[in-house]
Amino acid sequence: MNKKGAELALNTLIIVILVVIVLIVVAIFFLGGTSSLSRSIRTIFFGATAGTDLNLAVEQCNNHCANAQALPNYKLSGYCRITYNLDMNTDGKLDENNDKLGIKCWQDPINNVCLITTQVSGKDASGKDIVESVTERLDGEGKISC
Asked: What is the pLDDT of residue 45?
């Protein structure tokens, strides 16, 4: 009995299955499906009850601000999207009485100031087109809001 033909077909089938699995994983990664996965991993390794230290949150917000300033769409940055559960009494546990939950970078007690420069076009009094650079504070309530 000649087994070479059967082995080739089986090996090819296994390779095709592995390639399809890899393509599915890559597609999920690029379509943003890893956000829930990363949250699950964070919960496993950092615990569901542990909060973020205030100094660490301030440093992360500084980094998120720098990224927001470099992005063409700052609303997609971590500065606008990430909230922090701050363990204010540093006991390693979150509780609503002593800690700050769901805090954005610009809110108290983080109070990070992130300035974004945008281009504003319009016309002057004579009807001539003008473009001005406007620097505003990025926050949840201002002219440039998340």
From this structure: 62
